[in-house]
Amino acid sequence: MDTLPLPLDGITVVAVEQAVAAPFATRQLADLGARVIKVERPDGGDFARGYDTAARGLASHFVWCNRGKESLAVDLKDPRGLAVVRELVAGADVFVQNLAQGAAARLGLDAASLCAAHPRLVAVDISGYGADGPYAHRRAYDMLVQCETGLVSVTGTADRPVKAGIPAADIAAAMYAFSGVLAALLRRANTGRGGPVEVSMLDALAEWMGHPLHQGTHGSAPPARTGLAHSVIAPYDAYPTADGEQVLLSVQNDREWRRLAEQVLGRPELADDPDFATNAARTANRERTDEAVGRGLAGLTGREALAGLEAAGIACARLNTVADVAAHPQLAARDRWREVGTPVGPLRALLPPITLPGSEEARMGAVPALGEHTDALLRALGMTDEQTSVLRRDGVIA
């Protein structure tokens, strides 16, 4: 059987992007075969390049979000630079931008303007709070949106709210932009027209608030912050073992509680005790439930606890560190790691989660240096070396 090409092979994306939301969205497109041209400022480029130097001298956010792209360093405030990007957009299938609210419109690079000029184009505006409304022009960094959507109010301990340890608002917006592009391309295949796509970080993360939002909206109190524990299920938490490991377990129904009590905790009487026999009772008596489970696991090593829980059919996991994940046996067994080229040499990176059996493997291209592809892209547009030299002299390109 012939190997299928990647689904976005032949699609060209131009992205005026920075930080995480738009770059992570377009990286998904690049992984699936699209050509992604990343437009950056000549004086430093995407500011995420400077977040840290944790990836062997490169910024970890940038390495994560920008593999497989071509970097064009051009000043959009100079008419000559803007003309270059307009010419690229005219030949593209998709345009993505996440500039500060109003900036793209001032340049004529907003989705509405571009789609009016190029009916087959799919153009994406990613914003913090949307194009209108009282918050439209507010700065919208990830932590701020986590707070505005209430995510922080349900994350953390009873004593203290905490933000998610990953940029949840950025990732949410990125994934809706990614799926929005795919939907719009499918519509274009059927109708011949692309069209605008709008995604805001607030809308995306508010949707991800899911059951807490519905719980708090329809008459009940929103869930309390419970750390690793679940607000309405018990036991569902991490418990220390004899060798200092933390083992997380989750009992989803009363049959599982009986097996836990009888086969792991060695206390079969808890299965029928009215204070523990139902989930409602265990949740109401959470401290006593956790104490009983903690006492039962405290005499076991982490390995012994996990083996016993697995044998009893109880969902469980180790409380891993980041280093543990990097060495995770399941990722290794499924061959999920690859090497990606970067300006400092190859770096390990995970294959994208979307697997397409029978297709080419995801195209995990190199992470570009700033302006690495500027000359080649301008040459492809018909610009001479003399013309590019003038633009470089004037600081329009890098």
Condensed summary:
This protein has helices at residues 21-31, 60-65, 79-90, 103-107, 111-117, 142-148, 168-191, 201-208, 210-217, 254-264, 279-284, 286-298, 302-311, 322-326, 329-333, 374-380, 385-393; strands at residues 12-16, 35-40, 69-73, 94-97, 122-127, 195-200, 236-240, 246-250, 315-318, 337-340, 347-350. It has 398 residues and is of the alpha/beta class. Strands 3-2-1-4-5-6 form a 6-stranded parallel sheet, sandwiched between helices. A 3-stranded antiparallel sheet has the order 7-8-9, with helices on one face. A two-stranded antiparallel sheet has the order 10-11.
Structure in words:
- The chain is of the alpha/beta class.
- 39% of the residues lie in helices and 14% in strands.
- The protein has 17 helices and eleven strands.
- The strands form three sheets. Strands 3-2-1-4-5-6 form a six-stranded parallel β-sheet, sandwiched between helices. Strands 7-8-9 form a three-stranded antiparallel β-sheet, covered by helices on one side. A two-stranded antiparallel sheet has the order 10-11.
- Helix 1 (21-31) crosses helix 7 (168-191) and helix 7 packs across helix 8.
- The longest helix is centred in the middle third of the chain and has 24 residues, at 168-191.
